[in-house]
Specification:
Blueprint lengths: L36 E2 L6 E2 L6 E5 L5 E5 L1 H8 L17 H5 L2 E11 L5 E8 L5 E5 L9 E4 L4 E3 L10 E6 L2 E6 L3 H14 L15
Antiparallel strand pairs: 1-2, 3-4, 5-6, 5-11, 6-7, 7-8, 9-10, 10-11
GO cellular component, one term: cytoskeleton
Main location: cytoplasm
Pfam family, one: PH
Length: about 210
């Protein structure tokens, strides 16, 4: 919803399982902070600290509703200077880059000897040489980024790896990924083989993986 429409019509609610962190302060949801709240103005999932505001919403008969800090400031008409702070490299919203990406999908990810974990991986069109990793598709901050230029690609899985896996190595850093199937693995490799050489794919739209 655009700022002008906040409170005037009901938002689309982001589902709880689409995020692993508060969409405002980026605090991870865990056993201690598992209470998730929805802002009644923008529909974002926020933690209790960020939902501690109330505003009159037109679409709900001007009743007082729980809203997040950002919507509160917009609705009552005061601007928040924090908004103007430049976003750090990791603070690019997943939905923003996924919607305009060369390729995006869930992949299993393993670093060093840690266990495999599921990550939402995105290579944005604006930065087709960087792989962004998120905990979930609607997260507002990336867990990590890997600048792909100069990496070596090894796509032969070892017996301990998942079947459709591949590795990216550069001196001492090794990142292992695994796709759910061979077709998805090949789509990722097609893009990554170009990116490690500093090239970008021509037919970007064909690689959208939902």
């Amino acid at each position: 919803i655009q700022n002008a429409e906040l409170g005037k019509r009901a938002p689309r609610w982001i589902r709880d399982n689409e995020v692993t962190m508060c969409m405002k302060c980026k605090e991870p949801f865990n056993a201690l902070t598992r209470r998730r709240h929805h802002c009644r103005a923008c529909g974002h999932v926020v933690c209790w600290k960020c939902s501690d505001y109330k505003a009159h919403l037109e679409y709900d008969g001007n009743k007082l509703n729980k809203v997040c800090k950002d919507c509160y400031h917009v609705i009552i008409g005061c601007t928040d200077s924090e908004e103007k702070k430049k976003k750090g490299i990791l603070e690019i919203e997943s939905a923003e880059v996924s919607g305009n990406s060369v390729i995006c999908s869930f992949l299993q990810y393993m670093e060093k000897s840690k266990p495999w974990q599921k990550a939402w991986c995105v290579i944005p069109k604006q930065e087709a040489l960087v792989l962004y990793m998120y905990g979930a598709p609607q997260d507002v901050k990336a867990l990590a980024t890997i600048p792909l230029l100069g990496y070596t690609v090894d796509d032969t899985p070892r017996s301990a790896d998942l079947p459709h896996s591949f590795k990216l190595t550069q001196s001492k850093s090794v990142h292992s990924f695994a796709a759910d199937n061979e077709e998805l693995k090949q789509k990722w490799l097609k893009v990554i083989h170009l990116a490690v050489k500093g090239e970008t794919p021509e037919c970007q739209n064909e690689l959208q993986v939902n």
